[in-house]
Amino acid sequence: MRRIVLLFVLFFLLLAVMSFSMATAQEPAVTLPPTGFSPTPTPGPLPQSIFLEPIDPQTIDTPLVPAGGNAGGDLCQNAAEVTFLNTAVGGVTPNVQAFTHDNSDPVLSCMWPGASRPNGYRTVWYKFTPVTNAVVTINSDTSNYDTVVGVFTPSDEANACLTLQPVACNDDFNGFTSQVTFTAVQDQTYYVVIADWSAASSGQMTLNIFMQPQPGEEKWELVDNNPGGQVTHHDTVAAGEYIYIVGGQDDASSAPTRSNRLMRYHPPTNSWATMAQIPGMGVSDLTAVHINGLIYVPGGDTGAPGVFDGTHRVYHINGNFWSFLPSPPAAVGWAQAVAAADGSGYYLTGGITEKPVLDPDVDGRVETYFYDIVNNSWLPRPNMSAGRYGHMIARIGNQICVAGGVNGSVLLGSGECLAPFANSWQPIGNLNIPRFGAGSAVGPDGNWYIFGGMSVNANGQQAPVSSTEVYNPATGQWSVLNVPYDLRDPNTVFARAYPAGEFWGTHLYAFGGNHHVPSLDEFQVVPLVQRLYVPHEKQFIPLIRRSGASDFDDHMGAARGLPPNFWYGGNFNSTYDFYDFYFFDLSAFSGVTIQLDDIPAGSNYDLYVFGSSKLLWGSSVNPGNLAETVGLSLSPGRYYVLVQRLYGPSDGSGYQVVVLR
C-alpha cells in the first residue's frame, strides 16, 4: 500500500513539474538539485540601488560608441546638438551623478512600475534635426546604471522644452540599459532624454549614448544611368513600350544649360535611343503629355529673360519628327498637363507667365485650358480654386486632379479635382508634406504616387523631400509610405527634387532630378534611373523593425520563471546577449539561496537578485568562473534573478541556476 501511495505522490509531483515547464515555454530541461541541501532563513541585506559593472565594448563585434562623441546637456534648454548623415554618432558623459532633474522634465510613460519619479532622475539631453527621413536607433548599451530613454518632438518650436510630445520610450531593453527605434521625419527636431530610473544611485555613473540613423531597406532599385547625362526640371511620358524623357536642364545653376534632348527608354531591355531633337535652343520647366502617338509640349522655359515660352510643340512618334500647333492662351512655364480620359485632348493647368520663379510676388495662375485635338483649338475650363505652379497633376478615373505647388509666398499642400463637364473644382485631402517640383504618376493599383520634390524646412529654407506619398481615391486620403520607399540616391541619404517618372507595368520609374550635398552646400544634378515595385493589392508591407539581436529574456519584463529547488540550464545565445533574467514568487516570508554554477572556463558571470521595484537585494560577483551564491530572507512578493555575462564566448556558454527554498 505504501508503494502505491508513494507512486501516486511521485506521479503528481512529476505532473506539477511538467505543468510549470509548459507554462514557461522554450525553457531547457531541468535537473534535480543536489540531495541534503536545505537553506535556513537568515537576515538579509537592505535593498540597494542598481549599479552594475558595464559590459566591455571590446567584447562586442561592432563598436557601440564612436570615439569623440559629445557629452549631453543637463537640462532640455541646453540639449547637446547631434548632427549625422547616415553615420553613427555617440556621446560619453563620464559621470552624471552631478546632473539634475527639472520640474518641466516630461513624464516617461514606459518606466518600470515602482519608480518614485515618473520623469526620472539626473536627466541628460540631446537634440537633432535629420536632413532626411530615417529609422533612428538610440541605445545606452555600455552605460553602468539603470537608464530610461525617451524621444520627444516640440509642438511649439519657440517653447520647445515646455511643449514636448512623446515619440518613443524604453526602459530596460538589454539588462537595465535601454533602446528605442523610431522613424524620424526630415527637418523635424527631436529631443532625446536619458534619465536614471533610481533616485539612490551612487558612484561614478557613466552614460554611453549611441545613435544610428538608417534609411532602412531601400525599395527603389537603381537600374541605369541616363546616357544623355544628368537631367532635372524635365518631364516624362509613357507611350507603348517606351518612356520618353523630354527636355530639362543639365545643371542647377542660376543660368542653367537647357536641353533639347528627347531620349527614349525601353524598360524591358533597359536600352536607350536618342530621338529627334526638340526644336530650338532647349527647354526646361515644361510639361508633356502623350495622346495617340503624339507627344504635346506646350510652353516651358527657354531662358528668355523675364518671360516663358509660348510655343506649342508636338513630337510624332511614328515619323520621329517635330511640328508646331497653335500656342496656348498664355506663355507659361511650370504648368502641368494631363490627357482627357477619352483621348480627345488634354488639360493645361496653372503655371506662371513671369520671372523670377519662387518669388513671393509671383502668383501661380488659376486658369485651366483644354486643347481640343479635333478642332485644333484651346478652350477655357473652370478655374482652379487656388493659383499654383510647380504642382503635380494626374488623371484619376475620369477626373483630373492637382496637388501641391507654389502660389506667391505660399507653399501649397492642398489638392483638388475636376470632373468632366463639372462647373468647379472640388477639394481633396491635403498632402502630408506640402511640396513642389515632385514626380507624379498613377499606378496599376489606381492610387496616385508623388515622390521627391522640394519643401520648406523648419528654418524656412527650401530643401529636397525624400518621402513618397500616395493618394487613395477610395478613401480620399494621402499617406506617407515608410522610409524604405523614400526616393534617395543610392548609397547616400540625399533626398531629390525635380525628378520625373512614369509607371511601366508594376514598376514606377524615376528619372533624374537634383539633390543637395550638405558637405558641399550645393545642388547636383543626377543621371539616375530608379524603379519602385508597386503591388496590385494597394497595400504596402510596413517596415519591420527587429527588437534586437539579443535573446528574448534580456530585461525584467521578459524574465522566465524559475521553479523552486530545481536546477535550470541556461545559456547566452549570441554575441550581443549579456543578460538573462528569471523570476520567482514567494507567498510567505522565506529564506532562499540563489546559486549560479557550471560557469564555462574563460568566462566571468555575476549573479544579482532584485525586487519587483528594481531594488537590488543581493549580489555575488566572484572573479572568473567561480560559482556565485546569494542567501537572503525575503518577504512575500515577486523577485528577479539576473545572470550577467561580463565576458566569455557566447558559444558553449551554458550554466546552471537554482532558487533553493
How many beta-strand elements? 50
Q: CATH superfamily membership of the largest domain, which one?
A: Kelch-type beta propeller
Unreliable stretches = 1-47, 57-68, 537-551
**Average pLDDT score:** 84
CATH topology of the largest domain: Neuraminidase
Structural class assignment: mainly beta
Query: What's the overall geometry?
Result: elongated
Name of the level-1 CATH class of the largest domain: Mainly Beta
Tally of DSSP helical segments? 1
Instruction: State which percent range the strand residues make up.
Output: 35-45%
Largest sheet geometry: 5 strands, antiparallel
How many domains make up the coordinates? 3
Radius of gyration: 33 Å
Strand order of the largest sheet: 1-43-50-45-48
Distance between the termini: 31 Å
CATH architecture of the largest domain: 6 Propeller
Helical fraction equals: under 10%
Layout of secondary structure:
Layout: H1 2-23, E1 30-31, E2 80-82, E3 89-93, E4 121-128, E5 134-139, E6 147-154, E7 164-171, E8 179-184, E9 190-196, E10 207-214, E11 220-225, E12 235-239, E13 242-246, E14 262-266, E15 271-274, E16 289-291, E17 294-300, E18 309-316, E19 321-325, E20 336-339, E21 345-349, E22 368-372, E23 377-381, E24 392-396, E25 399-403, E26 406-407, E27 410-411, E28 415-418, E29 426-428, E30 439-442, E31 448-451, E32 454-456, E33 462-464, E34 468-472, E35 477-480, E36 496-497, E37 500-504, E38 507-511, E39 514-517, E40 522-525, E41 528-533, E42 560-561, E43 567-570, E44 579-586, E45 590-597, E46 604-611, E47 616-620, E48 628-634, E49 637-647, E50 655-660
Parallel strand pairs: 2-4, 42-44
Antiparallel strand pairs: 1-43, 3-10, 4-9, 5-8, 5-10, 6-7, 6-9, 11-41, 12-13, 13-14, 14-15, 16-17, 17-18, 18-19, 20-21, 21-22, 22-23, 24-25, 25-28, 26-27, 28-29, 30-31, 31-34, 32-33, 34-35, 36-39, 37-38, 38-41, 39-40, 43-50, 44-49, 45-48, 45-50, 46-47, 46-49
